[in-house]
Amino acid sequence: MQGLFAAGECACVSVHGANRLGTNSLVDLIVFGRRGGKAMAEFVQHADYAPLPQAPEANTLAQIARIRTGKGKEIPGRIRLEMQKVMMDHVGVFREGPTIQKALDVVRELQQRYQNISVQDASSTFNTDILEAWELGCLLDLAEVTALSALNRTESRGAHWREDFPTRDDVNWMKHTFVTLKDGKQELSYKSVTLTKFEPKERKY
Question: Domain map of the chain by residue range?
């Protein structure tokens, strides 16, 4: 997206690839944060304002209004706890197909229940109740993306360990996974990994 700069894991620069664990993401932030900042400073010297669609805020305002005025019986905190438990139990570092599928089914059920939430605080100022409820919707989407991608990747690589597919498969899976929302459904696509000086190696520790 023209004019949008990102640093860290969301930038997909693959400094560590699938082996990124712990606080190693600091390299992504420090190195590419600096590079990104310099690139932004240069970009704004020549960039013009980008055209915006009509009422670009409309979708977000509608989501917040739906949460504030919702009269459903579902409590966001309970849905969040159920999501956390199923993702921890079935989509942790060690995974296998049937349990990932179970987690995916549960997450999609929770997404349906999320449409029937209500919040206790409906005020419009400094409302963390609404903020956390809105964030829950985002977390459920990301949980679905994570489980769907893990289920589809039939190999083990770095921090993604499939107990039913314990070996790495560079022939079929040396590629990035992308998930796009189309017509309300998640759609998978891929991008080839660009190999430069340091090729990925099997983890030996």
Answer: 1-51, 58-167
- Go through the chain and tell me how many residues it has: 205
Q: Is 193 exposed, middle or buried (0-12, 13-18, 19+ CB in 10 A)?
A: middle
Helix (H), strand (E) at residue 8: none
- Could you give the CA distance from residue 99 to residue 86 in angstroms, rounded to a whole number? 9
What is the pTM assigned to this prediction? 0.82
- What CATH number is given for 58-167 in this structure? 1.20.58.100
Lowest pLDDT segment from 33-37, 76-80, 86-90, 176-180: 33-37
| Gap between the Cα atoms of 203 and 166, Å rounded | 12
Given a cut of 90, is residue 13 above it in pLDDT? no
Q: Over pLDDT 70: what percentage of the chain?
A: 89
- 132 contacts: CB under 8 Å, gap ≥ 6: 76, 77, 80
